[in-house]
Structure prediction request, 80 residues.
Amino acid sequence: MEVNAAVALACGLIISLGAIGACIGIALMGGKFIEASARQPELMNELQTKMFLLAGLIDAAFLIGVGVSMMFAFANPFTA
Prediction:
């Protein structure tokens, strides 16, 4: 297998697994938010703030993976 083919496969795996992980994480967090707000509706505003903060952090981790894979795709240090 050539280096370019391996890098392309690695970039695809980084992006796809990161997207799957981010989707599962946000889905679990959203479900727990709904459960917690149903149990204690008076804490809904505080929980919503924390939920959106965590959603941003989960998406940021995925976007860092996309950035790393784009670095390997366009500025590949292995083919220099």
About this structure: Helices lie at 3-39, 44-74. The two ends are 17 Å apart (CA to CA). The domain at 21-74 is CATH 1.20.20.10 (F1FO ATP Synthase).
